[in-house]
Give the backbone structure.
Amino acid sequence: MVDIAFGPEQGKRPDVTDGREAYLELVRRKRMYGGVLLVLFVAFIASGWVLSDGRNAGGFWNGLPMLTAFPAEVLSEGWERRAALPGRFLEFFPSLIETLNIAAAATLLGAIAAAMLALLATRGLARWPRLIPLFRRSMDAARAVPEIVIALVLIYVLGGGPVPAVAAIALHTSGALGKLFSEVAENVDRKPVDGLAAVGATWGQRMWLGVMPQVAPNWLSYALLRFEINVRASAILGFVGEGGIGHDLKIAMQWGQGRYDQVVAIFLLLFLSIVAIDRLSDRYRNRLVKGH
């Protein structure tokens, strides 16, 4: 009879001690690496903090008690003139509408450009697959440059006003939404697209009939979220002469004491409008995505 043995020694249980020791050694090594990285991170943060604090005109800790001085001064003057706030609301309401119009126009233009870039940059759906890296890098470049930098460049070309603000926000929006739209499009079911291709549909027809019905809820949800962000961006661009309520806020703050009630009124208008947009967009996103 031939004795067949499975393993190093027949009838002997596999020794789990070596596996356990190897696992514990791996855990210890990960903890050591994590501790070293944490120490390096804290050291870099501390050294950078010391360097930046030394370059300031005044020390950070010396100026820390003044952190609440300006807000307290603004709020106290706004409270003293609280009876004039309703009139200030009416005064700055047209500027708020201009800011909302800038954000809405920029979001619409940016979303349309993002939709085209996303479909052209999605693997398996792109019209020209070899140009996918070009379209992806274009989206990276569009969202890499902040809106305020783009607006400052466009001011020299187009002059001041809402048009440079719309162009700057729309360009940045196309890159940011294009990335999100592309990720949604990559997860669509390809069967409808393949079926349309089998009956001779063009690329545009395949995208419109096979892809858009699947991605529309998520795309609209992302566009509404971006609209909230663009409202804040359009208000910030007002500080560089792009119009809207941000420009009024800049002038009110430059005049200083005596016009702080205007600052309070503008902040309240911005806060209430953003809250309203947030609630409305959240409601419609739920209806689009979840059906309720």
Notes: The chain has a mean pLDDT of 83. The chain is about 75% helix and 0% strand.
